[in-house]
């Protein structure tokens, strides 16, 4: 496979990391220092900490996606390396979802205090999105394992 065929996807992976870095460095620090309602500031701190904790598996998952695209460039898409990368992406997505599930009660408290029920649904978006990614990675992992098995069977036949 030509090297340029996954260049667009690699650039997309890099571009996905830039806004998260900007929000992590500037946005969350600004929110922590200047809460909209100072009486609720103590509730925002666990939410901000949870967001910072999820940045670690997010970037690890992006790195694994970048490695997976590199394997595709090297014609190693159907290898154990790809299976391991997909497995790590799945675990990262589940970890992100778990952290946001732990943060959701604090989002509920803020939504109750501000009388903003839509905030609860906004807090559920990262949970659902990361679970979709986890399921997609698990399905791809099974497909790659099946493709590896078929490939090994075909190599053994004469």
From TrEMBL:
**What sections of the protein cross the membrane?**
7-31, 43-62, 91-111, 117-140
Q: Which UniProt keywords apply?
A: Membrane, Transmembrane, Transmembrane helix
Give the top-rank taxon of the lineage listed in the UniProt record for this protein: Bacteria
Q: Which InterPro entries match?
A: DUF2975
Record protein name field: DUF2975 domain-containing protein
